[in-house]
Each structure stands twice: as structure tokens, then as C-alpha cells.
Design a protein that fits this description.
The chain is of the alpha+beta class. 30% of the residues lie in helices and 25% in strands.
Length: 352
């Protein structure tokens, strides 16, 4: 489905993406620094034209490791210039950097040891520097207006289109799994169910925007503290709304499951309506052993940098630089500027 933008009242800049990997630069922000000792060698790499899983397989072959001996914090898109850290189990630090640089098409930035394997979610977020080519002549002024609006309104934390597969049918297949049909492989079933949860979250957020409830809290919202990540149910709207407006807290949306923290009052009614549209038996998520959770509904951008390059000339365009927390999609930000349904590639850049 086509999702709304929160700046629909402002014109877009148009444009195209990814004329080269150097036009889409992604840098991981680590959750913690390597300690300098331990069984796992952390290797920070820069690469282009490779997806994360293939990058992980390359040093596995080089050092004769099992694939489970390689760790990484999140998936990144293939068509990008990406800097990302991988962990390698019991690989000597002395020659690792030299061998990787000599035998693989990656740039090694640093290596260090740590006690644990890198796992999905072991990052704070990602920094993006993205060049949008073929934009309109007044793109900079338009982008500045959008930036100003986003700083006030925030951004709907939609799941990007790449979450739903190349054919866009992963959510439908996940629904089938919850109805007792579909593939038998456990990993594939969980993957498809996750896509279905993501689709329901997007529908919830779309409905909330349509109701005019993106810019304020609802009674019974499960809110998240931006400073600590703590969740709580909103019981006093008069007290909590100023904190929402100040960017201290934001509402969360449902990732439906058997153990999801429940909303109350008006917020619970909105979520129940979304789930009712799915026409699932009440026991479906529990039977499938899906716990569920909460996802931040509003992204706050601390800073967006804009840099125009020869807008009226061939090859000109606009650089947009920003930082997102883990689990968030650059496409969601870009479509606010471009006013287009942008798809980056086959991978999930969200790092859930």
C-alpha cells in the first residue's frame, strides 16, 4: 500500500537515487567499543556492491570458519558505500587485517578484540549521507522547508518497502502462516510473520495519521522515553503531552504478539481495530510462539544537513545527511523530501 508522508502539505524535490554506491553512504554507530581482549576479533570494514550476508561469508571462507562464528549488528543494502563491523571467532589479530585487505575487496579500517559475538541489534543506529540526483531547480528551498517541518513534527517510523520482499507479498504470506498454512521451515515462518507484524504496524501508523493523532498522545498510549528507552502507559494526558511536544517521549505502535505490552483506553481501541481487520483468531500469535513488542511511532531528527551541488547542471543534485536509530529506514526520511515511494534494494536496512 502507498503510505502517507507527514509533510504532504509541502512540495517534494523529485530526483533519483543510487547512481553509484558513493551516492549512498552508510556508517554504523556502535552500541559499545571493543574492549581489546576476548575470543572475538572485531573487524571494521568499508565495502561497496556487497550485501551483509555475502560480506560475512567471505572472511568465513578465508579463515575456514563456520558461518555461526561470524557476527554483525544489522543488515545493510547492497547498493551503498557501507562501513560496518563484523566479529570473527578466534582469528589471530596479527595477520587478519592484512589478509582481508590483500585477498578480499574490502577496506579494513581497524581491528580489535572483544569478549562477545556481534549480534543483531548491537548498534545505536546509522549515519547516512545520500545524494539525490535530478532534483528540481528549487530543490534546496523545498528541502529546507521540509527539514524545518520534520524538526517540529517528527517522522512516522514506517517500515520500508524492502521489509516486505521483492514481490511485496511477505506480509500476505505471514498472514497465511498465522492461519496455519504456508512453509514448514521454522526460520522462514518467523521471517514471514515478522513481515506481517510490520505491515500491521504500518497500517496502525497510517490510521493514526489519518485521525490527526500523530501530533499528540492518546489516552492509554504506551509511550517510550527517548533518554532511557523505558515504556509506560499514558494515564494523564495533561501531564504527558508537554513532554511529547518537547521530544522527551513518543508514542509506540504495536508489533502484535502474545506478550506485547498492552495499551489502554483510546489507544487500545485503535490497536484493536487494526488487529480486527486482520481477521485472526485470538490465539494465533500465541500458537505461533510470537511474543510481539512495541515500536517507536515517531522518529525525531536531531539534525539534517543539506548541501546543493549545481542544481541546474547535469550531474547536479542534493546531498542529505542525517542519523537514524537502529530499526529505522532511510527510505522513510527520503520520501518526505522526494515525495515518492523510494525503494533502496532487497535488504532490510533497519537493523531490528
Amino acid at each position: 500500500m502507498t503510505l502517507p508522508t507527514i509533510t504532504s502539505d509541502l512540495p517534494g524535490i523529485g530526483g533519483t537515487l543510487k547512481q553509484s554506491p558513493e551516492h549512498f553512504v552508510v556508517t554504523e554507530i556502535p552500541l559499545y567499543d571493543a574492549s581489546g581482549d576476548g575470543d572475538h576479533l572485531y573487524v571494521n570494514l568499508t565495502r561497496r556492491g556487497w550485501n551483509t550476508r555475502d560480506v560475512a561469508l567471505a572472511p568465513a571462507r578465508l579463515f575456514d570458519l563456520h558461518v555461526d562464528d561470524i557476527g554483525f549488528a544489522g543488515l545493510k543494502d547492497r547498493q551503498a558505500l557501507t562501513t560496518q563491523t563484523f566479529s570473527l571467532l578466534r582469528v589471530p589479530a596479527e595477520d587478519a587485517a592484512a589478509r582481508i585487505a590483500a585477498e578480499l575487496p574490502f577496506e579494513v579500517n581497524w581491528v580489535s578484540r572483544h569478549r562477545n559475538k556481534l549480534r543483531t541489534g548491537h548498534l545505536l543506529g546509522n549515519r547516512f549521507a545520500i545524494f539525490i540526483a535530478d532534483v528540481l531547480p528549487d530543490a534546496l528551498a523545498r528541502a529546507e522547508a521540509v527539514t524545518a517541518a520534520l524538526h517540529v513534527r517528527g517522522i512516522p517510523n514506517f517500515f520500508g518497502a524492502q521489509r516486505f520482499g521483492q514481490d511485496g507479498d511477505n506480509a500476505t504470506r505471514g498472514h497465511e502462516v498465522l492461519l496455519g498454512r504456508g512453509p514448514r521451515q521454522r526460520w522462514l515462518r518467523r521471517f514471514l510473520i515478522s513481515a506481517f507484524q510490520s505491515d500491521l504496524f504500518n497500517r496502525y501508523l497510517e490510521q493514526r495519521i489519518a485521525l490527526g493523532a500523530f501530533s499528540h498522545l492518546l489516552a492509554g498510549d504506551v509511550a517510550k522515553k527517548h533518554s532511557t528507552g523505558g515504556l509506560f502507559v499514558v494515564e494523564d494526558l495533561e501531564r504527558e503531552q508537554p513532554r511529547f511536544q518537547a521530544g522527551e517521549i513518543s508514542f509506540t505502535g504495536p508489533l502484535f504478539g502474545a506478550k506485547m505490552k498492552a495499551a489502554a483506553e483510546a489507544a487500545a481501541a485503535l490497536e484493536a481495530g487494526i488487529l480486527a481487520q486482520a481477521a485472526l483468531p485470538p490465539s494465533a500469535f500465541k500458537k505461533a510462539d510470537v511474543d510481539g513488542g512495541r515500536r517507536l511511532g515517531r522518529l525525531l531528527l536531531d539534525r539534517v544537513e543539506l548541501d546543493a551541488t549545481d542544481l541546474s547542471a547535469a550531474g547536479g543534485g542534493l546531498w542529505v545527511r542525517f542519523t537514524l536509530p537502529k530499526g529505522a529506514y532511510a527510505t522513510v526520511v527520503l520520501r518526505e523530501f522526494m515525495k515518492d515511494d523510494v525503494v533502496l534494494g532487497e535488504e532490510d536496512e533497519g537493523d531490528d
